[in-house]
From TrEMBL, chain A:
The keyword DNA-binding applies. InterPro entries: BlaI_family (IPR005650), WH-like_DNA-bd_sf (IPR036388), WH_DNA-bd_sf (IPR036390). This is BlaI/MecI/CopY family transcriptional regulator. Coiled coil: none annotated. Keywords: DNA-binding, Transcription, Transcription regulation. It comes from the Bacteria. It comes from Streptomyces goshikiensis. The keyword 4Fe-4S does not apply. Belongs to the BlaI transcriptional regulatory family.
UniProtKB/TrEMBL annotation, chain B:
This is M56 family metallopeptidase. Gene3D superfamilies: Metalloproteases ('zincins'), catalytic domain (3.30.2010.10). Belongs to the peptidase M48 family. Binds 1 zinc ion per subunit. InterPro entries: Beta-lactam_resp_regulator (IPR052173), Peptidase_M48 (IPR001915). Residues 127-185 form the Peptidase M48 domain. Its cofactor is Zn(2+). The chain crosses the membrane at residues 36-63, 278-301. The keyword Calcium does not apply. It comes from the Bacteria. Keywords: Hydrolase, Membrane, Metal-binding, Metalloprotease, Protease, Transmembrane, Transmembrane helix, Zinc.
């Protein structure tokens, strides 16, 4: 019971969703807030378990909040990863064969086309 | 002999037609099969090209092996030496290009991994703080499993359901080891210029494959379409136009609108109509035949040289 579609997925996949919710918030969140942010896709206990696991791995830090904890994603102290990664991304060589981006650059017409596709899709049918 | 050499050299023209056939074939197939067809075609046609070049290159050496010394071979068959020299130069150039591209591939991977630092915890998501909405799949490396790299800008541009589309998409790239298909086409393109046209086609179909996997993992095609469109629009609004976009930047309808449009249509299936099936089989056959033909011509040339050399010595 209460076994939603989301909870049958591997733990790593659930962690990604929870971690992303914390980064999106940009402030410490309690398990209840995380559950809300995810639109109730996961049970509260599942969220708590995942947050505890992320905390044990050092991916998130936590602070006291009322009777429980509020969680916050950790950045490495110097932001070194971010700077190095941005430097890599800024390079202009042909990375296509290695790192495939989620979305490629848009052509001149693409932006207009995308908006019209989405508008057309949103129209009541 | 000149005529036979010309016939084998003709095999080097075939990939232009065959690559076009492979692209037509891919357009008829669902993404996964299209990727297999394009990568297979790239491998086969590159193989055929190398076989034909080796065939042309080895004629003087084979003649020498058959006791026809080089000066005599050059006198009897004037085209042999210049053709062998040209084929040898082409083979050397290909080798240099393939080795260089392979190193380039490995070094991009190595640098991207070293940029993640060693302190990265386990788990498949790596968040990079930064406003630019970007996301990509970082393939596994030296025993470390692949990662989804995403900026906070991208995370904030999407809602939680759309983020699951993004994660599903990148996981599909990682699980399917799509970068290996992509690099295969990249290396094949170093062997024959006609095969360059397979790369943008393969890249599009790989994205489509990942899109379809993501759509079925979230169980909603429209959600997947919206997520991709929103991510692309977010990236476009903060990107710096004019700052090096590489050769793939398209004017007009680029890959993103095509992907969104495809997701707004029903899920792709293998061709069902007789006509489409026949076309797919015909195109696949054309690609296979042109690769096998190149191989066959190279082998035929070998036999022909042996035969003529013996005839020359006995006659």
């Amino acid at each position: 019971m209460g076994d939603t579609h989301g909870e049958r997925r591997p733990a790593g996949e659930l962690e990604a969703g929870v971690l992303a919710a914390l980064w999106a918030a940009g402030r410490p969140l309690t398990p209840g807030r995380v559950q809300e942010a995810l639109g109730g896709a996961l049970a509260r206990t599942t969220v708590t378990t995942i947050l505890t696991r992320l905390y044990e791995k050092g991916t998130v830090s936590r602070e006291r909040s009322g009777r429980g904890f509020a969680y916050l994603p950790t950045e490495d102290a110097s932001g070194l990863t971010a700077r190095r990664m941005h430097a890599e991304l800024a390079k202009d060589e042909d990375r296509g064969a290695v790192l495939s981006r989620f979305v490629s650059q848009l052509g001149d017409e693409d932006e207009r086309l995308l908006r019209s596709l989405l508008d057309g899709d949103g129209r009541p049918s | 002999m000149t005529l036979v050499l010309a016939l084998v050299a003709l095999a080097l023209v075939l990939p232009w037609g065959a690559a076009a056939a492979a692209r037509r074939l891919a357009a008829l197939l669902p993404p996964r099969e299209a990727c297999a067809a394009l990568t297979g075609a790239a491998l086969l046609l590159a193989g055929g090209t190398v076989a034909a070049l080796i065939g042309l290159f080895h004629v003087p050496f084979l003649a020498a092996l058959e006791q026809v010394p080089l000066p005599r071979a050059a006198a009897e068959w004037p085209a042999t030496v210049p053709v062998a020299a040209a084929a040898g130069a082409a083979l050397a150039l290909q080798t240099v290009l393939v080795v260089r591209r392979w190193h380039e591939h490995r070094s991009v991977l190595a640098r991207a991994w070293s940029a993640t630092g060693d302190a990265v915890p386990d788990g498949d998501l790596l968040v990079v703080p930064g406003p630019d909405p970007q996301a990509f799949a970082l393939p596994g490396w030296r025993g470390r499993s692949g990662r989804i790299v995403v900026t906070t800008g991208m995370i904030r541009a999407l809602d939680p359901a759309e983020r699951e589309v993004l994660f599903g998409h990148e996981r599909a790239h990682l699980a399917g080891r799509h970068h290996l298909l992509s690099v295969t086409a990249y290396l094949a393109a170093a062997v024959h210029p006609a095969l360059r046209s397979l790369r943008p086609a393969l890249d599009l179909h790989l994205e489509r494959w990942a899109d379809e996997t993501a759509a079925s993992s979230v169980g909603n095609r429209r959600l997947a379409a919206t997520a991709i469109a929103r991510a692309a629009l977010a990236a476009a609004s903060t990107g710096q136009p004019g700052k090096g976009h590489g050769p793939l930047r398209s004017v007009g309808s680029g890959p993103v609108p095509q992907r969104v449009e495809a997701l707004l249509r029903p899920a792709p299936v293998r061709p069902r109509a007789r006509g489409a099936q026949a076309a797919a089989v015909g195109l696949a056959t054309a690609v296979a035949v042109s690769a096998v033909l190149a191989l066959g011509l190279a082998y035929g040339l070998h036999e022909y040289v042996e035969f003529t050399a013996r005839a020359l010595l006995s006659g």
